[in-house]
User: Fold this.
Amino acid sequence: MSRIGIVPVNAIDSTFLNRLALCLEERFLFSCEIERTLRLPRTALNGVRRQLFFNTLVAKVVTHTPGDDGLRLAITDFDLYKISHQFVFGDASEEHRTAVVSIHRLRSDFYGEPVDENLLFQRTLKEAVHDLGHALGLKHCFNPRCAMYFSGSIFDTDNKMSHFCENCEKKSRASR
Ligand SMILES: [Zn+2]
Ligand SMILES: [Zn+2]
Assistant:
């Protein structure tokens, strides 16, 4: 396993994705490529919640890129939820080596603040590193600065780094 395939769900800015790919290559030392776009209509959302179910997205991403022996990272603008969580910034299926990140709640305008593309990028990078960590089998870390710290709110995301602490870095190297 030495490759990360980034799967854009619907239209995601390509400059943003290329920048993300470069930063992930630097952190994981895997080659990182942008896959073809996965088209997902709004009818895929839970009609009442207007959110996308995490497991639904993972299944679609796996079908979209079959036989992939590397890691997958899907980026979506849809808001995500799980059975156990009202919303998640992202999560991963270790079994399918698939990570997903939603940028929906990473946007500063979601919180009534001015649009900030650079802040959105930094937040996305942190959550992408976190969920790729899960896809590699890493669990949550108690160090609030580590990328594997669980973000229950956007403040947690802003407070953590876009890389692993020493311990998590060791575990991630061992799992590659
Ligand atoms: Zn997590
Ligand atoms: Zn850690």
